[in-house]
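[retry 2/3] IclR family transcriptional regulator: previous attempt timed out, resubmitting with same input.
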Amino acid sequence: MTAETSQTLDRGLRVLKLLADTDHGLTVTELSQKLGVNRTVVYRLLATLEQHALVRRDLGGRARVGLGVLRLGRQVHPLVREAALPALRSLAEDIGATAHLTLVDGGEALAVAVVEPTWTDYHVAYRAGFRHPLERGAAGKAILAARRRPAADPGCILTHGELEAGACGAAAPLLGVTGLEGSVGVVMLADSVPERVGPRVMDAAREVAEALR
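[retry 2/3] IclR family transcriptional regulator: success.
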């Protein structure tokens, strides 16, 4: 810690990071051990974070990330969208299909940026704000594939007719972006995804990941 930083704020942020990294929450004792501070300090940190809805405690006393974090996270979407647009535009024009950036929002896949090609006679209408289950569609399945194999690149995921009849999709996950789960993909009207699309989608996903690091 330096003279310009706040020890209390630093500890509070560390609490949020620790809670974000667990699905089952943490007790006051566990947080105390991980932070290297006494339980009284942890109680005060949790009480403050609870007042801002950033932390909640269940009936068993385990602390978890609160809904207030989701509200903060939604404000990040415009920044993420801006960073991703150049790669999405290039992808849409190269492939001649609608390109999109999809992020996890709760238990769903949420399209936060969409770019349509300018030169095609027709393309799939896919709007920013569109939601669907992670288990359906290439965008969500690519994210789930990255979850299952966090140390490996799952490559490009292909689907057909899962979100719209007659449409197929290809998507690759964003890898190496701390605190963000997402994918980059394209959706097109076709019986199958052309062979060249997969590698191009993976390149675009890498470009977006680099822009967000």
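[retry 2/3] IclR family transcriptional regulator: DSSP finds seven helices and eight strands in the chain.
[retry 2/3] clearing retry counter.
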